[in-house]
Design goal:
With 467 residues, chain A is an alpha/beta fold. Chain A has 19 helices and five strands. The chains are: A alpha/beta (467), B alpha+beta (427). The interface between A and B is large, with 37 and 51 residues.
């Protein structure tokens, strides 16, 4: 027979119930690899499924001490630390927390959270693993890249143009973009649209340059590209990117990020920005004592007392996320560089700028599982939000995973996967967890020496037989 | 065995320094009350409390009545035991004076320091009781597979993830006790290679707790939250006693075992710790042997028994064993580093590993480390060592205080980092 007409003997069986249907789930709601990947489309791992209640305490502290404090006050906190208090390793939910914090801030530029006091955006920065981000300039490169990724430059340009249009062409109606902010921003960054609407770009630019915040900028600032030429040039985010890469590493780039760029943001109405630095330990982990101190000195000068516009204003508020062991790693550098006086990392008393990131409790574990389960329910009305897990099973899972969020999720994934293979397994109880816990429990101790396999001198033999 | 009787006549204090405190008080005063006053002050100065490194909050002037009574009790215990060793005389009016032995011992402290003092005292104790010989031989007899090592696993509710705030009823305690029993069964299997069914024993302790009124009989009823620590301590003691009596067949009480092992630790002939890394509970092992004689120069005879055997403490000569010590230190350091991401690790955890590996006392560890550290400062060591004072953030205050700190180069040190990249690699 012609291969075009032949069919495989095994057809996909669409009629059989899904593997997870009897658990009232469309699919396994838990991630098989519980690592946050901000750019993934899978909501199980991109931080989208997120139970705010679990980190309410931490969120409230960030909100009260940073987001709600007026940026205009000269004494607002410029540097804070989120410090993991437990030593259970990675996967406590810090990255998920940050990703959500960033989204939360950027949703309304913090205007909603701060009751209109602050208009700020948030940037999420992760140093590169393996020691590639060792110096402050390389960190600034990452920081600038994160600013570009957050599209805030594009949005600032759009804001400036929109304001100019409102003044110069008050009758122009932007109806085609009504209600769609993303489209509006894109539109305002498209030269063709302006030409279509017969807007005089030179006039528009001229108006924008009148903005009081843009007065003291150097003439080569990319916004002014084509200012004095006859051809009007339409500036895009990519122009700033190009300009930055043309600058020399070091002073020039620092000036650009910590002085000039701020003017652009201010002109667009922002009065601050939150820079969330995840996995900060990737930097000091690979630094020598000298590199640590230099890094701390540069950070101090950019944030607090250097000749940068940011140091005067406190525009960027940095929040560094640290693992439990990190403060010890950078203590010396912080003390030597004077950072310890500005934003102490190991203060004697509880301080506002230090946000302890606590270990999960049993209740948190329960909330976490419920949240994931709820996202994938076939019928959202269930008699028990934990189903198919029992309360006892939950306790056991928590205990076995040492209340580490990532381990809990991974274990829930494995257990559900296992249960779905057995037709008559309709619930996951403590006995089922015990039967299927596997070597997981042991694996955590494997690398650590234990007394039963530690070498030890046999004194009796040594005394009897000295050689 | 000649006389093993007195090992069960429990001495109520651990610290041998109490003898020094008493003797120096008697040296100054004869009147018993004055001696007691001086004893109180010196006790404070030498930080002799439940833990040697705990800050004693109350000053000796303003003690509560209960405290004075407790102090007086200890005071009397020390006097009684000192009399047994003929260190002092008491006349009919209760005045105390030092004997020649007492004076000689006091001098020993001043000339040879606490370790020399403890070892001299040890000789007096051993001449009378043979208690240490009994213990050392007991340890070696119990575990032939890992010579002399005794383990007493234990897990607090917290370590088994039962939070205090969520543990309120008899049923909650029962759940904890079942989890505990299971862990202990696993540990017996793992460390001693035997299977023991402990469910019955668990019932025993639960029944006892109910009978003593600490737990309500009704399983859903709440117990007195203030008794939480008492209840968990009961579990701890119950299982330690179980291990001693049933698993290791020790004849005497748990408190006698406690006191004599901790005294042995101060003398340097055995080691006892509750902080061995990655082990929950207590371990005890000897750092000495009982033999007729030994050819090895790494042992020092501390005592000779009537049957010709001697107690030899393991005391490797420093310079000759320096390399061995450094190798052990480096290996232990990397073992601990594997579970800890930073360069600095807890020095006391490292000490536990090295002491067990080399079977040496904590005091000797300190001497070795001091020696190595000096070589390191002079640049004559194949590795680089940094020692720091700062405590690790993971160490809660309580844990920090319970462990004796390591004194090197005149300062207490808590964390250590080692760099082996300098010079040749270590095998």
């Amino acid at each position: 027979m012609n291969k075009l007409l032949r069919k495989p003997s095994e057809q996909n069986q669409h009629d059989t119930p899904g593997r997870f249907e009897r658990f009232n789930l469309t699919e396994n709601p838990f991630p098989s690899e519980p690592v946050v990947n901000k750019d993934s489309m899978d909501k199980r791992i991109n931080g989208d499924i997120y139970e705010i209640e679990i980190r309410k305490k931490e969120y409230d502290q960030v909100a009260n001490c940073f987001l709600k404090q007026p940026q205009s006050s000269p004494n607002h906190l410029r540097l804070g630390y989120i410090i993991d208090t437990s030593y259970i390793g990675r996967g406590n939910g810090k990255s998920a927390f940050l990703v959500n914090l960033q989204q939360d801030i950027n949703k309304e530029y913090c205007l909603d959270i701060s009751d209109g006091i602050n208009k700020c955006f948030a940037v999420y920065v992760t140093p590169e693993p393996g020691g590639r981000t060792k110096t402050f300039p390389s960190f600034v490169d990452l920081f600038f890249k994160a600013i570009l990724d957050s599209h805030v430059v594009k949005e600032s340009l759009a804001t400036l143009r929109l304001e100019a249009i409102r003044t110069l062409y008050p009758d122009l109606v932007l109806d085609e973009t009504a209600g769609d902010e993303a489209l509006l921003i894109d539109t305002l960054n498209t030269k063709e649209w302006f030409e279509e609407k017969h807007i005089d770009l030179a006039k528009l630019s001229h108006h924008i340059f009148q903005n009081k915040y843009l007065q003291n900028l150097p003439p080569d600032f990319p916004l002014f590209k084509g200012r004095n030429s006859l051809l009007s040039v339409f500036v895009l985010q990519s122009d700033l990117e190009k300009h930055y890469s043309g600058l020399k590493t070091g002073k020039q780039r620092l000036d650009f990020v910590f002085s000039h760029l701020i003017r652009l943001f201010q002109a667009a109405g922002f009065n601050g920005a939150y820079v969330l630095v995840d996995d900060f330990e990737r930097i000091p982990d690979f630094q020598s004592a000298r590199q640590k101190r230099d890094f701390a000195l540069e950070l101090r000068s950019c944030l607090f007392d250097g000749l940068y516009f940011n140091a005067r204003l406190g525009f960027y508020d940095f929040i560094l996320v640290l693992h439990a062991g990190v403060p010890r790693l950078i203590e010396d550098a912080w003390a030597q560089s004077g950072m310890e006086n500005r934003a102490p990392i190991s203060p004697q008393t509880a301080s506002k700028h230090i946000i302890p990131f606590e270990k999960l409790s049993r209740d948190h574990a329960s909330l976490l599982l419920k949240k994931y389960l709820a996202e994938y329910r076939i019928d959202p009305k269930v008699f028990s939000p934990l189903f198919p897990f029992t309360e006892d099973a939950l306790s056991k899972i928590g205990e076995l995973s040492e209340y580490n969020a990532a381990k809990i999720l991974k274990m829930a994934y494995d257990l559900l996967d296992k249960a779905s293979e057995t037709i008559d397994q309709v619930k996951i109880d403590e006995a089922f967890v015990n039967r299927n816990k596997g070597p997981q429990q042991e694996s955590s101790d494997k690398t650590i020496p234990t007394i039963e396999n530690a070498d030890s001198t046999d004194l009796q033999r040594k005394a009897r037989d000295p050689d | 065995m000649s006389t093993i009787k007195p090992i069960h006549s429990v001495k109520k204090f651990y610290f041998l320094e109490y003898f020094y405190v008493l003797l120096s008080s008697i040296e100054k005063y004869a009147d018993k009350e004055q001696v007691f006053d001086s004893f109180k002050i010196l006790k404070q100065q030498h930080r002799l409390g439940e833990s040697k490194y705990k800050t004693l909050s109350s000053d000796s002037e303003n003690l509560s009545k209960a405290q004075v009574n407790r102090y007086r009790y200890t005071f009397q215990q020390v006097i009684d035991e000192a009399k047994e060793y003929e260190l002092l005389d008491a006349d009919s009016e209760g005045n105390l004076t030092l004997t020649d032995e007492g004076k000689a011992l006091l001098l020993k402290y001043r000339v040879n320091g606490p370790v020399g003092f403890n070892q001299s005292l040890f000789k007096l104790m051993e001449a009378r009781y043979n208690a240490f010989r009994y213990l050392v031989e007991f340890l070696y007899n119990v575990n032939r597979f890992k010579p002399g090592l005794l383990i007493f696993p234990n897990y607090s509710p917290r370590q088994l993830h039962f939070e205090k705030s969520a543990t309120r009823t008899t049923a909650d305690i029962k759940k904890y006790s079942e989890a505990l029993t299971q862990r202990l069964q696993q540990d017996i299997q793992k460390y001693l290679g035997e299977y023991r069914e402990l469910a019955e024993e668990n019932t025993k302790i639960l029944v006892r707790l109910v009978e003593s009124g600490l737990l309500p009989a009704n399983s859903t009823a709440k117990f007195d939250a203030e008794k939480y620590n008492v209840i968990t301590k009961r579990f701890r003691d119950f299982w330690i006693t179980y291990f001693l009596r049933e698993v290791y067949k020790y004849e005497f009480s748990m408190s006698s075992f406690d006191i004599w092992t901790y005294r042995g630790k101060q003398i340097g002939i055995m080691h006892a710790t509750e902080f061995y890394p990655n082990f929950n509970g207590r371990i005890v092992y000897p750092t000495s042997v009982i033999l007729p004689s030994t050819e090895s120069s790494d042992f020092e005879r501390l005592f000779e028994y009537a049957d010709g055997r001697g107690l030899f403490v393991h005391k490797p000569e420093i310079e000759r064993n320096q390399d061995k010590f450094v190798d052990s230190l480096v290996k232990a350091y990397f073992d601990l580093r594997r579970s800890n991401r930073s360069y600095f690790i807890s020095l006391s955890a490292l000490r536990e590993l090295v002491c067990y590996n080399m079977k040496i006392s904590e005091h000797l560890f300190e001497t070795f480390l001091e020696f190595a550290y000096r070589l390191n400062l002079e640049g004559n060591l194949k590795i680089r060592i940094s020692l720091e004072v700062d405590k690790l953030p993971e160490e809660t205050k309580a844990m920090y205080l319970k462990q004796e700190p390591v004194m090197v180069d005149g300062r207490y040190r808590n964390i250590i980092a080692i760099d082996v990249t300098k010079g040749e690699k270590i095998a």
